Amino acid sequence: MTSMPVNAPRRLFTLLALSLALAGCILGPDYQRPDLNTPAQFRQAEGWTQAAPSDALARGAWWELYGDGELNALVGRLNVSNQSLAAAEAQYRQARALVRSARAAFMPTLSSSAGVTRSGQGGGDSTLRTSDGFSVSSSNGASISKSYDLSLNAAWELDVWGKLRRGLEANRADFQASAADLAAVRLSLQSELAQNYLQLRVLDEQRRLLDATVAAYTRALKLTENQYRAGIVPRSDVSQALTQLRSTEADAIDLKWQRAQLEHAIAVLIGVPPSEVSIAVREQLPSLPVVPQSLPSQLLERRPDVAAAERRVMAANAQIGVAEAAWYPDLTLSASGGYRGSSFADWVSLPNRFWSLGPDLALSLFDGGTRSAELERSEAAYDQTVAEYRQAVLDSFREVEDYLVQLRVLEEESVVQQQALDAAQESLRLLENQYRAGTIDYNAVVSIQATALNNARTNLTLLGSRLTASVQLITALGGGWDSASLSETPAP
Description:
By secondary structure, the chain is an alpha+beta fold.
């Protein structure tokens, strides 16, 4: 039986104390958020200051701002059944598992093995030829043996240079980036669904407008036909009235395929075949949210794509430390013990016991430049993520500026367009009375009818554009502008 030297525990304790002292060392640069050259406030809105990413703040159900229960229900179905969202959630769980795997690297590994080995040596016949031409045969006896092994092995890699800690830091940052990616996918899909639904409701309003116009044109055609039969107006007036009616009917029919496509898109977003979704026509339009005159800058911190870009900078920074640690030796403490014997009967017995214990230092002396190339690659990857993060922040500022100015201009345009519509409707009323009185011909009526209808449709198109721009602004702000949630403590 092999015995442990008396001073072996003392040496092992000394080695562990030295290893723990060195474990405080961690290679590579500590993470610092990249500097950003951002404006103190937005050009298109007042009350903005420089922002810092804080995507963990609660966003709330921003789609409820439109006051539409059916939209709320559709978004709820999207959150549960959308397949792109399910794929992003699975990717998030993969990143979470990698963090658990990185944490497990700090713990010792324990393994066991048992086996039997049969081996042989020598054996076989050989022929020798003498100088006088005679042959002599000889035979060697074979040696066959069995060996039974039962062992328990333990190994523990000490994180002396911080390689494992930097690896965990990188995996944790990648996990946080994946969580932000999941939030970005969810927000993007919710935004797409809301835009499709709002456009569908605008199409319904346009269809109601065209149906009402068709009814008015039908009455006008009947009046013109009566006047023609009475000999008051020429046949051309009837033709013009009929042309106006049929053209408007064709416009109403054209809206059917546009509405169907929006329905199909909504069906796919909520994770069902298009044949299973039918959204009933409703007379009430969703309300247009009022954009606050002063938006707090912290809302921009909630953008998940900006947060994901910053987390990837953190991960790339940690990978530099992993690459630098490759230049230093790895220290592993290993221990093994068990039983080894040639007879199964007395296999597990004290005379057959064996053990081993000791440290292992592993250092690559020559690798042809692999480590230096990996360090250079890690530093370049960090520079890339910094540039992508800065670009994401710049894009976020640009998008908010774009949608703020778009909403403001569309609101001004809507006021003027409504005035044009009111004037056209008043002109139509006056000209229709004059036509009934026989003071003007039907060309003037047809012209003002087309003008009034075009102004009414343009007014609805502007409303649809404002609704879409409001959704896009909410998305650009990271999912809403409710400043009450800014006082909440971000989740770890």
